[in-house]
Design a protein that fits this description.
The chain has about 900 residues and is of the alpha/beta class. The strands form 3 sheets. Strands 12-13-15-16-17-18-19-20 form an 8-stranded mixed beta barrel. Helix 5 (about 150-175) runs antiparallel to helix 10 (about 310-350).
Length: about 900
């Protein structure tokens, strides 16, 4: 009992005496030191008894007084260190202090450890009893008000009566052979107090919170030792055996040591501690005590010892209490059985009526129980899997996922299980938990078969990242691969990007048709697969543009690019109408731009560098290879020159506006004009808006540029309206103009200066504006719409379209991007998408304009799909203002009457029925 035990507050590190050590650790060290002193005192007392010197009438009480006082000091220091959790041990320390006072009085008076009569020394000992009871009461605080129910009280009553009967039997028999008169307090009072404390100790142990159960066990041990003190003292006095003083001293010491260990084992009261069940030890202890009394009395009768009336009454009371406890035990058992049956029925309903497979694992990972749903899912029977390890039917590569599922059974871990037929099914853990809480009795896993879902996800992923025509990875897949490769470059791995564009591909489409162009793209894709190395990634970005992600440096990538150009430089014979390769022959080659991936560049920067190199290659002629370093110098020089000359162009007469007509299919005439700005550079020639408009945005010149375009276009169109022409003007609006906050006054000023009616002006904004300036867009566009202007959403479908914006913002016109129209006369999906946009516009009362119409087939397909407005090179190219009236007057509506090209079925998308 005095050996060292693991303590929650035990400081396992050396150097605990250093300044600033934790108070709880200091208390534990003091407890260990005092336990050593108690053990030494017991050893000296034993040697004294063996040598026959006797404990002495003063020495024994003095030793106990010192030990009790030291115990009180240690407990008080520990209680202060614990704060509120130290209140039980403050009360116990007070009891020890009173015991020390009583033993001190016994030593002074020389009455010995076991006194024959009551005296002043007994008053502090009796006052210690309420303190001990208070310590027990404070220890069970937080155990829950309902925890000390009738069952616990019955157990305590059984122990109280049993210990009292045992004490009475022992003391009564001792008094029968007594050689001296014994005071009633000594012979009856102290044993009764010992019995009471034993019962209270059991009650405390049964109702204490779980975290204080160890402390309560040690406290019950202390009260048992105190009971031994009371009984041994009465016997020693009655029989005049001074050697029993040693037993009393040992019992006192054990009581003090148990109190110290109880304080050290106390880990405090949790904030939310609720006692849910009674410890079995309390029931066993009460039954053993009652049975021991019965056996003792029966044995006494067997040897001729008479049973007194008090003993008979006590034995009868024990029988009644034990019977009542047994009945309550039976009631509890019946209630628990009913609850277990109900819970099992719920469990079977939940587990057996679901498609999920439930597996119960023990600590060794063996399947102790498997639900019946495993049979249709995996082909196994529960009996075949019972006792086997889960890893026996798990794919070897998924061992880590299984360990994660068992360690955190909340769900989300996926792995593969082998069926009885040897196939693999994908499952996912969707819940579970530990058996019996966190007692380490095993785990429960709920496994859901997700094979079909994973197959569908992989197919959707393949479709999302694969080009439908060539089977190559598409732009999205290339972007993801570039992101991963860029991350690896930070670790020292090199990679490069090849951007390839076919030379002469447009002629194939225009002459032999889109079907021949598609066959050429498939052929180029197959050649690229054969030309590149195994780890390289070939992707199609769209149209006739391809990309290759090369896992090597710039020099090796350029060598590969030259090999690819040489492999693609050959004549291509288109397929004829009968499917034979007897169509026209085209010379098809490829130009490639090469750039190396760098950690500091994002994916957009890498693609832009490769595109810049590709432009340099195409500018140098067909079948060329240029790296970003070669192209960057020329491009940087040109960009710097344009940025420097743009302010002068705005101030001078280098800018001009051209107009591209928009034709109404139902009206069969030109209905509107889109204003397009051009820059005639004195040295570099005509500069396209795709070059200088971004420069104007970057250099803060976009607002004056668009003010000039608005003023010039509104003035010229107002003149044509005055001449009797029925036209509508469309002007593109930059997001930077919107961000500047002056779009509304600039439009109003242009309308006022030119006299153009507001309803004749259509402001075209791109989808990117929707994503970046939602609040300002909604406010400014609504203001312009209220002013009478027409709002158009340009390049619809090119960016991140959101139908929610169409319902919320004042959009009057949708202009479909050219990408929608490519191949719609033969592409079923493309035709369905175009028809859905047209139908969307019809339902929202929004006009739809198809941009980029270049072939009769595209025009015929749009007519069949119900599109009302078209724009493109097939109908009219951008025209100078001076030539525009003649172009409008010369427009031949019969171009709309060309033979209709049969389109693919649209599956009713956007059509009634």
């Amino acid at each position: 009992m005095l050996t060292e035990v693991p303590l929650p507050l035990r400081d396992r590190r050396d150097g605990g005496s250093r300044p600033g050590a934790h108070p709880a650790a200091r208390t534990v060290r003091e407890t260990r030191g005092l336990l050593t002193v108690i053990a030494g005192a017991l050893l000296l007392s034993g040697l004294d008894a063996l040598l026959g010197a006797g404990t002495g009438l003063r020495t024994g009480p003095a030793v106990l007084a010192v030990l009790s006082g030291a115990t009180a000091v240690v407990l008080v220091r520990g209680a202060r260190a614990r704060g509120a959790d130290g209140r039980p041990w403050t009360a116990f320390a007070a009891a020890c202090a009173l015991i020390s006072l009583g033993q001190t009085l016994s030593a002074v008076r020389g009455v010995g450890v076991n006194t024959t009569s009551a005296g002043v020394q007994d008053l502090p000992l009796l006052l210690a009893v309420p303190c001990a009871l208070l310590a027990c009461a404070r220890l069970v605080e937080g155990g829950g008000p309902r925890s000390a129910d009738s069952r616990v009280w019955l157990d305590a009553a059984v122990v109280l009566v049993a210990v009292a009967v045992l004490g009475e039997v022992v003391v009564h028999d001792a008094l029968a052979g007594s050689v001296a008169d014994v005071d009633t307090l000594v012979s009856v009072g102290y044993p009764a107090v010992g019995a009471l404390l034993c019962a209270v100790g059991l009650l405390t142990f049964a109702t204490a919170p779980a975290r204080r159960r160890a402390a309560a066990a040690w406290l019950m041990t202390a009260w048992l030792a105190l009971g031994v003190v009371a009984v041994s003292g009465a016997i020693a006095v009655a029989l005049g055996l001074r050697v029993l003083d040693l037993v009393t001293v040992v019992a006192w010491s054990v009581m003090l040591a148990a109190g110290l260990l109880a304080a050290a084992a106390d880990s405090g009261t949790p904030e939310a501690s609720v006692q849910t069940q009674l410890p079995l030890a309390g029931v066993v202890f009460s039954y053993c005590a009652a049975s021991g009394v019965g056996v003792l009395l029966v044995c006494g009768v067997a040897v001729g010892r008479p049973v007194s009336g008090l003993e008979a009454v006590a034995a009868s009371l024990l029988l009644v209490l034990t019977l009542a406890r047994s009945l309550l035990w039976a009631v509890d058992g019946a209630r628990l059985t009913r609850r277990l049956a109900r819970t099992e029925s719920w469990f079977r309903s939940l587990v057996l009526d679901t498609d999920d497979v439930t597996v119960v694992l023990d600590d060794a990972g063996r399947m102790g129980w498997v639900s019946e749903s495993v049979r249709p899912r995996l082909g196994w029977t529960p009996r075949e899997l019972a006792g086997r390890r889960l890893t026996d039917v798990v794919h070897p590569a998924d061992a880590a996922a299984v360990r994660a599922a068992v360690a955190t059974p909340g769900g989300g871990q996926g792995f593969r299980l082998r069926t009885r037929a040897g196939e693999w099914r994908e499952v996912e853990s969707v819940g579970g938990g530990a058996l019996g809480g966190d007692t380490g009795q095993g785990r429960v896993l709920h496994l859901r078969d997700v094979t079909a879902r994973r197959d569908a996800e992989r197919e959707l992923e393949r479709m999302a990242f694969t080009d439908y025509l060539t089977g190559l990875p598409n732009r999205a897949r290339l972007t993801a691969a570039l992101t991963a490769a860029r991350a690896r470059t930070g670790d020292g791995e090199v990679a490069s990007l090849l951007l390839l564009d076919l030379d002469g591909f447009k002629a194939v489409n225009d002459v032999a048709g889109h079907e021949a162009g598609d066959l050429l793209l498939v052929e180029v894709a197959d050649r690229l697969r054969d030309l590149v190395r195994e780890p390289d990634l070939v992707a199609r970005l769209g149209g006739d543009e391809f990309a290759v992600l090369v896992r090597s440096g710039l020099e090796d990538a350029a060598a590969l690019a030259r090999r690819v150009v040489a492999g693609l430089d050959r004549d291509h014979q288109a397929t004829g109408p009968d499917g034979a390769h007897d169509g026209p022959v085209f010379a098809v080659a490829g130009s490639i731009g090469v750039t190396e991936l760098r950690p500091q560049d994002d994916v957009a920067t890498t693609l832009r560098q490769a595109d810049l190199a590709l432009r340099a290659a195409k500018a140098a002629g067909k079948g060329r290879v240029r790296s970003h370093g070669d192209a960057a110098d020329a491009a940087t020089t040109r960009r710097t020159r344009l940025a420097h000359d743009l302010p002068a162009a705005l101030a001078g007469d280098q800018l001009r506006v051209v107009y591209q007509p928009v034709v109404g299919l139902a009206e069969r005439r030109v209905l509107g004009l889109e204003a397009l700005v051009r820059w005639d550079h004195p040295d570099l020639g005509e500069v396209g808006p795709d070059e200088f408009v971004p420069l104007a945005e970057d250099d803060g010149l976009i607002v004056p540029l668009q003010r000039w375009v608005l003023g010039r276009a509104c003035t010229e169109v107002a003149g044509w309206l005055a001449a009797g022409r029925d036209l509508q003007l469309g002007v593109n609006i930059s997001v930077r103009h919107l961000q500047a906050g002056c779009l509304v006054p600039d439009v109003a000023a242009a309308l006022a200066a030119s006299g153009l009616p507001a309803h004749r002006l259509m402001l075209e904004v791109t989808e990117s504006v929707l994503m970046s300036e939602q609040d300002r867009l909604g406010s400014d566009l609504q203001t312009l719409h209220d002013l009478g202007c027409v709002v158009s959403l340009d390049d619809f479908g090119r960016g991140y379209s959101s139908f929610a914006y169409l319902a919320r913002l004042p959009v009057d016109v949708l202009k479909m991007d050219r990408e929608f129209l490519a191949g719609i006369e033969t592409d079923e999906r493309g035709a369905a998408v175009v028809q859905s946009v047209i139908e969307l516009g019809r339902r929202l009362s929004i006009d739809v304009v198809a941009e980029g119409v270049e072939t009769p087939g595209e025009l015929a397909a749009l007519v069949d799909l119900g599109c009302r407005f078209v724009q493109g090179f097939l109908l009219a190219r951008p025209t100078e203002a001076a030539d525009l009236p003649g172009v409008i007057d010369a427009f031949d509506p019969t171009v709309l009457d060309r033979p209709t090209v049969r389109t693919v079925p649209s599956h009713g998308v956007g059509r009634a029925g």
